[in-house]
Amino acid sequence: MENLEKNLDLTVEESYTEENIQVLEGLEAVRKRPGMYIGTTSIGGLHHLVYEIVDNSIDEALAGHCDKITVTINPDNSVTVEDNGRGIPSAIHPKQGIPTPEVVYTILHAGGKFGGGGYKIAGGLHGVGASVVNALSEWLELEDVYDGKVYTERFERGKVARAFACIGDASYKKSGVKVTFKPDPEIFEETVFVYETLENRMREQAFLNAGVRIALIDARGEELVENEFVYEGGIKSFVTHLNNNRHNELIHPEVIYMRGEKGTSVAEVALQYNDSYNELILSFANNMHTIEGGTHETGFKSAITKVLNDYARKAGILKDSDKNLSGEDVREGLCAIISVKLEDAQFESQTKAKLGNSEVRTLVEGIVNAKLSEYFEENPSVAKNILDKALAASRAREAARKARELTRRKGVLGGSTLPGKLRDCQERRIEVTELYLVEGDSAGGSATQGRNSKFQAILPLRGKVLNVEKTRVDKVYSNLSLIPIIQALGCGIGEEFDIAKLRYGKIIIMADADVDGSHIRILLLTFFFRHMRQLIDDGHIYLAQPPLYKVYKRTGGRNQQEYYAFSDAERDKYIAMLGGHNVEADRYKGLGEMDAEQLWETTMNPETRTLLKVTTEDAAACDAMFSLLMGDKVEPRREFIEQNAKFAENLDI
After folding, report:
1. d(CA 229, CA 323)
2. Cα–Cα distance between 305 and 479 in angstroms, integer?
């Protein structure tokens, strides 16, 4: 603990002179600060490399020159992306004096996406995508088929390793680009690609680009895994896919689709309501998922709220004295895709998290106002079903407001109120504080005794956590298992959520390594995902990893060599290491079996513990999984368990 407490002192003094100013040339800047270009060097950044190369092929499709893209994960965990687009012009670049493909792969901000007429609409990293992938790869090989000839070049860590050269005539295809790259282990924490992550992304791109065929191949196993995605229905098919994954009943059978243009900009919207209490809106700009929304999403939300309120008043469903339905009311149960394509997309970050073009809001708003109003006039039964759901949501929201005020009057959710069972820490700086949500009073007692009270707080969980997937927010305010968590975190929930009031930088769920513990984890994660989503998005939620076994060998009757194993394989390794004879492996039934010292050393000590950060890189996949695992439908959940049981470890319970 002594070293850790020293680490809490954030004061650093260094000299600062002209010698501290560095000038990085070429792709050195990318390798020095990769996070500036791809967001992170974790598993998310690893997959981002593939997205960048695929986005270049998608841009060819948007320009009308490509209809087939193949992505292959090779046995050595390199990736090949091949398309049948135009290829890259092969001549010497007039300004750079080197072959044009070499310019694309070695010089930042070089490409056909800067108004030179190569592309009207483009995603990617504004021309830095190919060169960034090259800079962050151990090696990259390019095969460029252009104007009937085949050209190749090899790079290693961004530098030319085999010069650009023509190797002959192209006999096997007319034109296109084939790129194979291997992520650099010096840059990335993890270099093994997850097939399912790439599968979700490739399927998404096929939905957004109707008619484009995208094949994904995994060549790493004994058997080749191959999937091909092509959707003539475009984003209408996307909405159908998302609602099928959520396993909810539909409020209306048909996906409502709207499209409009203004100048060179195009906007598409597809939507359908289901009977859940949650909304799922995914927005895209030039095929890039704008996870933080932007002007296109703002325009959509504003318009759908206006259209439903106007229709409700015109139809007499809302009286003059009634308040308007809120945006939250009209979006309950909504599944929607918003996709815009425009020439000069302005994003508010390098990784395209949020669209900033003001004219796009006007375009989307106008389309939804006009076409959704027209649809409701022609389909009044659909409009009535949607409004019935919105009115029920409005009544629940009012009930939630009253419940919130009641609990506040009782002092339950007051700003200074903390739960009685909370064992708080001394620190107040959010960058160092941790809150452990611990299953059971016994484990809570051990955790309290074993913790570092300077920065670690403990909150034993009370009773069975409410399944919020099946209940509206008004029930949360009367639930005795969730109120202490809301009190301890201090940042509120739902529309009152304020991340600035969060009291702890890490919220760590610590539950037993058994079926009951897994259930508690998924219940808490469902609560955070549905009511405090930003805690997950901003990286505040973690899962503790307690050991499954204590492996030990008695020596001399008293002393013993012992190790903690976190899997069956690790248990077997320690048994073999200790010689097998007189070696015992005790399975922990629960956290409560560990004393304070054991719990600290295995699960709470920052220098020895393992924490899993909870992320939502694919919001749609997370939404579908929570709906599947915690929703009302039993049969889809049973099918999921049967299909995935082979991946679970045998639990001795």
Report:
1. 46
2. 31
Residues in Cβ contact with 292 at an 8 Å cutoff, skipping those fewer than 6 apart: 348, 353, 354
Across the beta sheet with 334-341, the strand order is 256-262, 265-273, 334-341, 280-285, 288-289
Catalytic member of 60, 102, 365, 514: 514
pTM comes to 0.75
Active site residue 514: yes
Please choose, from the candidates 270, 344, 291, the residue with its C-alpha nearest in 3D space to the C-alpha of residue 51.
291
> What is the Cα 578 distance to its own chain's centre?
42
Strands 541-544 and 149-156: unpaired
Phi and psi at 473, nearest 5°, equal -65, -25
Q: How far apart are CA 314 and CA 412, in angstroms?
A: 42
Distance CA 253, CA 272 (A): 8
Residue 426 has what pLDDT?
A: 94
- C-alpha to C-alpha distance for 304 and 310, rounded to whole angstroms: 10
Domains of the chain: 28-229 (3.30.565.10), 235-404 (3.30.230.10), 411-546+613-647 (3.40.50.670)
147 as an active site residue: the answer is: no
Q: Could you please report the per-residue DSSP string of 400-465?
A: HHHHHHHHHHTTTT-TT---TT-B--S---TTT-EEEEESSHHHHHHHHHHS-TTTEEEEE--SSP
- pLDDT tens-digit series, residues 469-502: 877 777 887 788 898 999 999 998 877 889 999 9
Give residue-wise pLDDT tens across range 78-110: 999 999 999 999 999 888 889 999 989 998 865
pLDDT tens column, 275-294: 988 899 999 998 888 988 99
State the Cα–Cα distance between residues 283 and 270, nearest whole angstrom: 11
Beta-carbon contacts of 86 under 8 Å, excluding residues fewer than 6 positions away, are 60, 65, 66, 146, 175, 176
76 is known as an active-site residue: no
Q: How many CA atoms lie within 13 A of 638 on its CB side?
A: 4
Catalytic residue among 59, 512, 618, 623: 512
Tell me the per-residue pLDDT of 587-597, one tens digit each, with 9 for 90 and over.
Answer: 887 787 888 98
- CB 251 within 8 Å of CB 258: no
**Among the listed residues 485, 498, 501, 478, the one whose alpha carbon sits nearest the alpha carbon of residue 406:** 478
Of the candidates 439, 469, 618, 623, the residue annotated as catalytic is 439
Active-site residue, from 138, 359, 474, 516: 516
In the residue annotation, 329 being an active-site residue is answered as: no
Per DSSP, what are the bridge partners of residue 142?
Answer: 153, 179
